[in-house]
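Per-residue structure
===
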Amino acid sequence: MDNETPNCAPDFKGSDLKLKGFRVYEIMGNAATVPTYNRRDFYKIAINTGKNTIHYADRGIETDGTILFFGNPHVPYSWETLSPDYNGFACVFTEDFFKTAERSECLTESQLFKPGGTPIFSLCEEQKYFIDSMFKRMIAEQDSDYVFKDDLIRNCLMLVIHEALKMQPTESFFKHKNASSRITTLFLELLERQFPIETKERPLKLKTPQDFAQNLAIHVNHLNRSVKEITGRSTTSHIAERVISESKALLQHTDWSIADIAYSLGFEYPSYFNNYFKRLTGTIPKAIRG
């Protein structure tokens, strides 16, 4: 997850973002934690001044200065802040918010957001001043009563995007130490990205090592060997641990029926879930619910 910290953590949840489609906030070191979004269903643009290591798919980049970052929900990424003092702005938004009748191009086809692209740009002082001004305008408008504020915000986003398109992307990426490390990182990102479960209507999609291997376009044996080499544990054990952890949370903190929980976790029948849970925990789901 991102390790950014704003000067004042906004009081909103991922569900609010899904409803409104957009949120922008300021980032500053030594303060409360940035809001996290349960699923990376959102595109992200961030400007940050400080020292960071950003991992994006199988690559990483070390930055020291001001950078502009474009996050794609279809590509695993994480952000490690290395300096105690850093600042900037970030916004997250859905594709539906960004798209209008006049602008129908899919974000995933954009040069900035396309998988395999380079989403990090180094900024000079003039570029930083301009991008900062766009974020400040978006912050001022997001809670205003202006009827057409969404259009104004979209225009600000487009100006940021066009400014980036004029730049040359940073190319000082480093590779992971080896292929096993890269594959394991991608697997763990994909696994964690599925949680927490937010709705009964959106069941788990990746449930087996084969599912993950297919998503990563590698053979399942290659995935299993890589995960075992790097973590000392099997792919199946990582998946099982996360499924059990999530099932306990759903049992304890929701009023969903056990059948609904089973379905949301990818089990076709509640009996399959009961047997799976008992085999791994020694007890039945109903006992956890108390």
In short: The beta strands are 22-28, 43-56, 59-71, 77-81, 87-93, 120-122, 173-175. The two ends are 32 Å apart (CA to CA). Confidence is low (pLDDT under 50) at residues 1-15, 31-39. Residues 14-174 form a domain with the Jelly Rolls fold (CATH 2.60.120.280).
